[in-house]
Amino acid sequence: MDFSHSISRRRFVVAAAGVAAATLVRPATLRASAVDERRIRIAPGQVRFTGPNGPFTPVWAYDGTVPGPMLRLRQGQPARITVENALDEDTTVHWHGIRLQNAMDGVPGLTQPPIKPGTDFVYEFTPPDAGTFWYHPHADSLVQLGRGLAGALVVEEAEPVAVDRDLLWLLQDWRLAADGQIAGGFGSMMDASMSGRVGNVVTLNGTTPTDLSVKTGERVRLRLANASLARMMALRFEGHRPVVVAIDGQPCEPHEPDDGRLVLAPAMRIDVVLDMQGDPGSRHAVIDDFYDGLAYTLTNLAYDKAPFRAHPLTAYLALPRNPVPAPDLANAVRQEIVLQGGMMGGGKLKGVGGMMGGGMMGMGMPGMNGGAAWAINGMSMTGDGHAGMAPQFTLPRGATCHLTMRNETAWWHPMHVHGFSLSVLSHNGSPVPHRQWQDTVLLAPKDTIECAFVADNPGDWMLHCHVADHQMAGLMTVFRVT
Ligand code: C2O
Ligand code: CU
Ligand code: CU
């Protein structure tokens, strides 16, 4: 008997299986048309945001974890996701950024009946675009998202992208009390009419960050997603030059961001390619300095003593484009969205009627008792998705919409459109470079942004600020594609 042969052969088989598991995410035999079946259960749970010795925090969770499980789907392959609601209130799941059929968009009252406690809903869609997306509730969003309901959704490219590692940072911000409980007071007037519920603890994939170990020469695709209720972020990688390759899931021309800062408002995603060029053994801070005077170190890149490769990769970084229809600007239908209200907003809200649960409410104190603090074109839709939301405008199917968004307020607003990716044309009159497509567009105070999209998908679609307090307090509207 030649034992050495059988042992080495056995070793080889094991090693080969390890390689296959690491590089092929699913068996090559799975046909692209096979339905990818998933199940998610939504229920109260407990997590530790500050590591194994920290306090338990009661949360609401997808499959018991915060964030929820990372769903990896494949571009063009049908998915069927059964969602079971074990909370004691209604919920829905919205697949943020995925261009899908209106009935699967997860807005209660508008696109589906809410998922009642103890019942299921089956979502079926075929993601047309590869990229970085996420999922979250669209019922009682401020509280449900604020208690932990959010997860990442990655749609894989048909051909794998040539990087050494594919990492995802889902960033969340929490307002925690000293005992580790999520603080109450959701929807206060202060939060609603100012910057929203910005918290005091930031987590990365569910825990307060520890160092990320990296190796000299590695090329990493880092998918950044801000799933906070209200916290804006601007990340700088000290000693590194991240290259932006996609925004909100849509590939763009690879470019280094202005001042090396990656600005991520709530709901936004940015994919960067990071070439790890630090010295072996060195450590580099990743800093969030969005708010003046409140910069903090999010995490550190900690280099291994041993390099990964001697010479950095030089291959071009562009991702393959998604099949998003090109706008026909010469024949576009023009629409304008004007954002109004908030504290120091110049009293623009007089005469605004707020809608909640289908009934009309007058303007009280901004944001109080579900009242309006904000408006779009003079109209405040408050609360979350509900029946009877009348469209602000209607677009004929197939038309190009040239949409101008004007921020008349003194606050920042990440404006999000359901169902479509927007080609971002200009920012305060200057053309936006790098062929950027986004589903969430950040407007600084007094900003004007012009964008365009082809209204190829019929249905009633939401357009709202993704600062959850702002949406609840009136910065929300609906448009229709017929
Ligand atoms: Cu993240 Cu209305 O959506
Ligand atoms: Cu969305
Ligand atoms: Cu806002």
Helix vs. strand class: mainly beta
Report how far apart the termini are: 75 Å
Radius of gyration: 23 Å
The major sheet is characterized as: 7 strands, mixed
Mean pLDDT: 90
Distinct small molecules bound, one entry per kind? CU-O-CU linkage, copper (II) ion
Number of E strands = 34
Provide structural commentary.
- With 482 residues, this protein is mainly β.
- Helices cover 8% and strands 38% of the residues.
- The protein contains four helices and 34 strands.
- The strands form seven sheets. Strands 20, 23, 26, 28, 29, 30 and 32 form a seven-stranded mixed beta sheet that branches. The chain has a six-stranded mixed beta sheet with strand order 10-9-12-17-14-15, with no helix packed on it.
- The chain is globular and about 60 Å long.
- The N and C termini lie far apart (75 Å).
- Mean pLDDT is 90; it is low at 1-29 and 350-369.
- It binds CU-O-CU linkage and copper (II) ion (2 copies).
- CU-O-CU linkage binds next to β5 and β33.
Q: What's a concise summary of this model?
A:
By secondary structure, the protein is mainly β. The protein has helices spanning 3-23, 141-146, 189-193, 468-472, and strands at residues 36-47, 57-62, 71-74, 79-85, 94-96, 120-125, 131-136, 151-156, 165-174, 201-204, 212-214, 219-226, 233-237, 243-247, 250-255, 262-264, 269-275, 283-288, 296-303, 333-341, 354-356, 359-361, 374-376, 380-381, 393-395, 400-407, 413-417, 422-427, 430-431, 437-438, 440-443, 448-454, 459-465, 476-481.
